[in-house]
Specification:
Helix content is about 35%, strand content about 25%. It folds into 2 domains: about 170 residues, P-loop containing nucleotide triphosphate hydrolases (Rossmann fold), CATH 3.40.50; about 80 residues, no CATH class. The protein has a 6-stranded mixed β-sheet, with helices on both faces. The chain has a 4-stranded antiparallel β-sheet with strand order 2-1-4-5, with helices on one face. With about 250 residues, it is an alpha/beta fold. The structure holds adenosine-5'-triphosphate. Adenosine-5'-triphosphate (ATP) binds next to α1.
Length: about 250
């Protein structure tokens, strides 16, 4: 089933920078789509437009056949709550426990006054612990988030995003701050939630070796335009140079 459709999406920031030009693509349920491209090619902008963190300048975005770009207010908030997101810097609340951080993911479905008082239901707490188990961190539930390693914090961020019961998880360079082996560990958990929970993943990555290991499909951006859409294994030397430039050299992460 088609989950997401982007039609002629363009984005120009208020300072005049056009970050996306007429971007067209669709995403099927269950895909693990990776977006690649040089720094500044528009990868983060595209993810932020998908969940409407940044309004698009023109074009249409359909999520489950409903036009997100025509929504506002409560309707938009409801649809957005099905699109989770994780970031390069994890964005946890450092002095709160891991469990509290995961519960914060339920904000979209919890009245603000309840969440401020920490009044989550027993069912929500059980759910949070279950998600922590999925990312292998149930034993850290009552530890302060800033006592965890970077890779562990990113796994907490994944569990927090799962509390939204997302159909799609957007991952904006989720391993860019991590060392190679920790990167694989985090990518494996993203793969697990994609394959076992059926959450569609759209992820920005820098290293092609990670792309080849985890992506089911790849989109490459260059100067805000799509220059490649296809299988990760079809990115040969010629495509590599088209995407990253003639002088680029592939660097591997093992
Ligand atoms: N808030 C903003 N205001 C103005 N210009 C921006 C803003 N955010 C990004 N840009 C510009 O938009 C273009 C695309 O940036 P974007 O961050 O989407 O690229 P990226 O491929 O994710 O890069 P990186 O890999 O370095 O994160 C760049 O020219 C960038 O300078």
């Amino acid at each position: 089933m088609q989950l997401l459709q982007c039609n002629n999406l363009s984005k120009t920031y208020p300072n005049g920078t056009q970050a996306l030009h007429d971007v067209n693509f669709t995403v099927e349920e269950g895909e693990f789509l990776v977006i690649i491209g040089l720094s500044g090619s528009g990868k983060s902008t595209l993810l932020r437009c998908i969940n409407q963190l940044h309004p698009v300048s023109s074009g249409e975005l359909y999520f489950e056949q409903q036009q997100l770009t025509a929504m506002a207010g409560k309707e938009l908030r409801q649809q957005r709550s099905r699109i989770g997101m994780i970031f390069q810097q994890f964005n946890l609340i450092p002095r709160k426990t891991v469990l509290t951080n995961v519960l914060a993911g339920a904000l979209a479905v919890t009245p603000v006054w309840k969440s401020l008082l920490g009044l989550y239901s027993e069912a929500q707490k059980k759910q949070a612990l279950d998600y922590l188990k999925i990312v292998g961190l149930e034993h850290k539930a009552y530890v302060r988030a800033d006592n965890l390693s970077g890779g562990q914090q990113q796994r907490v961020a994944i569990a927090r995003a799962l509390m939204q019961n997302p159909k799609i998880l957007l991952a904006d360079e989720p391993v860019a701050s991590l060392d190679p082996s920790t990167s694989h560990s985090v990518m494996k958990y993203l793969q697990k939630i994609n394959q076992e929970l059926g959450v569609t993943v759209i992820c920005n990555l820098h290293f092609l070796s990670l792309v080849r290991t985890y992506a089911s499909r790849v989109i490459a951006l260059k100067g805000g335009r799509i220059v490649y859409q296809g299988a990760p294994d079809d990115i040969d030397e010629q495509w590599f140079k088209t995407i990253y430039g003639e002088d680029a050299v592939e660097v591997s992460i093992n």
